[in-house]
Amino acid sequence: MDRRQLFTAAALGVVGATALGSLDPAEAFAKPEWDVEPGAADPNFIEGVVNTITDGQLFVKGSDGVFNRVQVTSATSVWKLTPTSFDKVEVGDGLYARGVRMPDGLLAAESLWVNIVNLEVIITSIGKGQMDLDHAGSRVVGNVVPGTSATVYNGTPAISDMSLLQVGKHVQVIGAWRPGTNEIDIATVYAAV
Question: Which of 29, 50, 121, 186 could hold 149 in an S-S bridge, CB 3.0 to 4.6 Å?
Answer without folding.
Answer: 186
